[in-house]
Design a protein that fits this description.
Layout (H helix, E strand, L loop, with lengths): L4 E3 L2 E3 L6 E6 L4 E7 L3 H18 L4 H17 L1 H12 L3 H25 L4 E4 L4 E9 L2 E5 L5 H14 L3 E5 L6 H12 L7 E3 L4 H10 L5 E5 L2 H11 L5 E5 L5 E4 L5 H13 L11 E5 L3 H13 L19 H16 L3 E4 L3 E4 L2 E7 L2 E4 L6 H4 L6 E7 L2 H9 L3 E2 L1 E5 L3 H10 L4 E4 L14 E2 L2 E2 L4 H7 L1 E9 L1
Parallel strand pairs: 7-8, 7-10, 8-9, 10-11, 12-13, 12-20, 13-18, 17-18, 20-21
Antiparallel strand pairs: 1-2, 3-4, 5-6, 6-24, 11-23, 14-17, 15-16, 19-22
This protein binds NADPH dihydro-nicotinamide-adenine-dinucleotide phosphate (NDP).
The site of NADPH dihydro-nicotinamide-adenine-dinucleotide phosphate has 33 residues, from α7 and α8.
């Protein structure tokens, strides 16, 4: 399959005619090529986008809403095709792509198609001064959206949908390792009659294509999801140009388990929050802290459940854990197991590469639990982003709170307890953007989504995203 750039409603080769191989993680084989786009491709997209903005920014909210909802419906109609492409590119179980990734991408378009019709701005009467202020919320212009490989279409559309709904034109780049569903999205946008030039999808490497988007002087806002280091690099380029920035970055999320929780629910959910999508979700609870009184029981029950997870080919319906996204990433994750061992960690289960019959060159790994002696090692401080979790006991609320917060990241936390007072205390003190209490990854698209500390700046979701993608202008009228 040869993937092309989507510019001005057409599929085009990169101007340089430079291509990159696309590899299938389930068998390690190259099965296609994608453009390695340059500044010239980004410039071409920008010129078309700038032209399209004149019309799109003035299109009625009802019309924008209608088009976004049409895209959502077409994604649903094409569910199987998109899910197969996502699973092949990323290595995730096909069942997961069908149940979560593609339906959520469709929901993103539907949600923001509806949300824009409900979005409003403020008005302030300056009492005693015979004046009224109102806020205009205008689209920014041409904006850049850059997304990672773990939830490819899901996170791509989580940015594109609000940006378009708010009246912007978008130049978007998916991760080079998972380009296919973004490519297919172009077809759907044409079918939904999204005007030409409103959305450009440019493929290529992060440090060439991605960077060209960030460096473009007329692209006024960048919404980025990816690694913390990349986010810092992007901020360095964008900040002196005074671009608006939304950065959703890495996480090292605590999963805090108290003995008074609903045990079975906690156990099942903890298996999910540890290993869904091969542990490659920024929200996975990778540091598990368990109250000492139930630690031994939890440890043996958790190991038993995790050993039942089946590592296998993504299209096998019995597979729980598919392939890791790429060879370098598999090597990185395996290396963290060695780092943990050298730090005194004890591998309780997993830790190894897996060979699947018929797919021996695929990138598979066992779900891995490591018991750690403390929270200070690299295994508990650095983002692994794979099927690896650590566990350790704690004695008091104060101690666990300190460990939970003692990390550079601050994305999400999960708390398992039925003690309301403790819940309320801890919710106040946990340093993160999202707290889940007695659940995990239960999402309401209206809520603010994002992290603190090295997990990023800004929030996505609901009206937060529509605020990000609009420029507020206060108008003061004296009467
Ligand atoms: P990367 O930071 O490597 O890449 C993210 C995106 O940025 C990719 O499209 C990448 O392109 C691109 N990119 C890379 N370098 C540059 C650059 N210099 N300028 C512009 N764009 C660039 O992250 P991964 O794809 O490896 O994704 C995993 C990371 O994403 C993890 O750290 C994870 O925690 C984080 N993440 C955060 C989420 C959140 O909401 N907070 C949600 C999901 C993931 P290419 O792939 O071609 O290199």
């Amino acid at each position: 399959m040869k993937i092309k750039n989507f510019i001005n409603g057409k599929f085009e080769n990169p101007i340089s005619n430079d291509w990159i191989d696309n590899c299938c993680p389930a068998n390690g084989e190259v099965y296609g090529q994608i453009p390695n786009s340059s500044k010239a491709d980004v410039e071409k997209a920008y010129q078309n986008a700038q032209y399209a903005f004149e019309v799109w920014s003035k299109t009625t909210l009802e019309e924008r809403s209608r088009i976004l909802i049409k895209i959502s419906e077409l994604l649903e109609t094409n569910l199987d095709r998109f899910a197969e492409a996502e699973s092949k590119d990323n290595g995730k179980p096909l069942s997961l792509a069908k149940a979560i990734d593609i339906p959520r991408a469709a929901s993103n378009f539907r949600f923001f198609g509806n949300a824009i019709t409900q979005f409003s701005s403020e008005s302030h009467e300056s009492v005693g001064q015979n004046a009224i202020n109102y806020t205009l919320r205008q689209p920014i212009g041409v904006v850049g959206c850059i997304s990672p490989w773990n939830l490819p279409l899901y996170l791509f559309t989580w940015k594109i949908a609000p940006a378009l709904a708010a009246g912007n034109c978008v130049i978007a780049k998916p991760s080079e390792v998972t380009p296919t569903t973004a490519y297919l999205l172009g077809e759907i946008c044409n079918e939904a009659r999204l005007p030409k030039g409103v959305l450009s999808i440019i493929h290529g490497l992060g440090n060439t294509t991605g960077q060209a988007i960030v460096e473009h002087p007329e692209i006024k806002a960048i919404s980025f999801t990816g690694g913390t280091q990349t986010g810092a690099h992007i901020a360095k380029i964008a900040a002196p140009m005074f671009k608006k920035l939304s950065l959703e970055l890495g996480g090292k999320n605590p999963n805090i388990i108290f003995s008074d929780c609903d045990y079975e629910d906690m156990l099942d959910t903890t298996v999910r929050s540890s290993f869904s999508n091969q542990g490659q979700i920024c929200l996975c609870g990778s540091r598990i802290f368990v109250e000492a009184s139930i630690y031994d029981k939890f440890k043996s029950d958790f190991i038993k459940k995790v050993k039942q997870l089946r590592v296998g080919h993504p299209s096998d319906s019995k597979t729980d854990i598919g392939a890791i996204v790429s060879k370098p990433h598999l090597e990185k994750v395996l290396n963290y197991v060695d780092i943990a061992k050298a730090e005194g960690g004890k591998v309780l289960c997993g830790g190894n590469k897996v060979s699947i019959d018929g797919y021996e060159n695929g990138y598979y790994m066992e779900p891995t639990i490591i018991e750690v002696p403390n929270n200070g090692g690299r295994i508990n401080q650095e983002e692994v982003f794979g099927p690896v979790v650590t566990i350790m006991p704690f004695k008091t609320e104060k101690e666990v709170l300190e460990m939970a917060n003692n990390v550079k990241y601050g994305l999400s936390s999960t708390l398992w307890t039925n003690d309301l007072k403790r819940t309320m205390r801890m919710n106040q003190k946990l340093q993160c953007g999202i707290v889940w209490v007695n659940t995990w990854m239960l999402r309401d698209l209206r809520t603010p989504f994002g992290g603190t500390k090295a997990s990023g700046i800004g929030r996505e979701g609901g009206f937060e995203a529509l605020r990000f993608f609009t420029e507020p202008k206060n108008v003061c009228i004296k009467y």
